[in-house]
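Final report, results section. Input specification for complex C-07:
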Amino acid sequence: MSGARNVRGGLALLALSLAGGLAMSLYAFEPLVEPPPALDRYDDLPRRLLRLAHVAAVMLPLLNVLLGPVIGRVRLPATSREWTSWLLLVGAAGLPAALVLEALFPAAASWHPSGVPAIAFALGTALLAVGAWRTPGAELLTASAAGRAA
Ligand code: HEM
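Structure output:
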């Protein structure tokens, strides 16, 4: 069922993101480790990008867990449901990773790697919205409609 991978993947990514938050707390407040100069000051761009990666790594997986069950209920062709599922998951994994890349390798920021996963996640959400608007309310809200044939 399409949405199951979003719930599983979302929870795995969420656990990873909290581990990332714990790693940030080693240098963020009373530093336990000496951070590299680029992470020294709170509003240095690499540090801001790491914070943004952290927030994206929490919220986008949470949205996967929330939206995963809905993917199987909406009236979309099976292929579109599969695309929706993968766009949301790839976006949730790819955006934090791309932001960390831009933070650690400032030269990479010039080709904007975070753009692609951000667009992927937005497309996945738009596809799901189209499906939701094509689906009667009762079907959208009841779990029993899961696994709907195309
Ligand atoms: C184990 C759980 C978490 C840990 C250890 C953690 C750790 C951190 C640390 C160390 C910072 C500061 C980084 C810096 O100063 O550059 C931070 C910032 C932030 N975290 Fe988390 N975090 C956790 C969970 C969450 C959750 C669930 C959210 C919800 C979205 C969240 C949202 C944020 C936001 C918005 C910021 C930026 C705040 C600001 O601008 O100062 N964090 N986190």
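The chain has one domain: 2-145. The longest helix spans residues 45-71. This concludes the modelling results for the funded period.
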